[in-house]
Amino acid sequence: MTGGLRIGVLALQGDFARHRAALEQCGAEAIEVRRPEELADLDGLIIPGGESTTLLKLMDAWNFVPAIEKFHAAGKPIFGTCAGLILLAREVTRPSQFSLGLIDVGVERNAYGRQRESFETRGTVALAGGRREIEMVFIRAPRIRRLGPGVETLATHDGEPVLAQQGPVLVAAFHPELTEDLTVHRYFCALVRAARAGVGPVFERRLCRRNSLLGEASEGAAEAPSESSARERKP
Ligand code: GLN
Questions:
Q1: Which pLDDT band, with edges at 50, 70 and 90, does 3 fall under?
Q2: Does residue 136 surpass a pLDDT of 90?
Q3: Which of the residues 19, 72, 157, 175 is marked catalytic?
Q4: Which sequence spans correspond to the domains of the chain?
Q5: What is the CATH number of domain 6-233?
Q6: How many angstroms separate the most distant Cα atoms in the chain?
Q7: Distance from first CA to last CA of the chain, Å, rounded?
Q8: CB within 6 Å of ligand 1 — which residues?
């Protein structure tokens, strides 16, 4: 029940097909994006996991950077998972590399160490409907080492942020598209719907309210971006 949402998945490299399937299961129209001009009539965009250096080269070759910046400037939501998080972060270390800087976080690449390069675990999300555990798959994942003051943590693993949001930009260190659980994709669809409906001030309010996972736990779960999206998120 996403009311004709058109959400793109950057399909240059990496795990775009699973994101597409997850979006379709949420009822959105999912479009594989291979050219910057294809962003024009989309309501939201997912930048998938893969290899961020390869993605950067391909984005550069097709001149995607200005198109994504314009998309973001229009207030349209972007969700980056794993390599997508690396591309959206403000700083990237080990090694440092260019990034779009659309969310005020610092990430360290491949930061879980050799023994735990890829692993499945459980972590806590706090979205509408309360706090609960979900399965999380990490594949040579980045770690969020710094969170800017305007960034809200929506999920943690071992006490560290692994799902975070700043306004219309959502990032995950794990791969929600690799599990059957649609919680995170439903949340992103709700964000896209709220942005399309012009519920901008909701984003601003969210920024002022630090998430209870890291803070004083005063408010319980993070709020839905809008009432209609809260309904949508129910299974
Ligand atoms: N290690 C990859 C990188 O640095 C990210 C891995 C992933 O997206 N699963 O780009």
A1: low
A2: yes
A3: 175
A4: 6-233
A5: 3.40.50.880
A6: 47
A7: 11
A8: 49-52, 82-83, 86, 109-110, 139-140
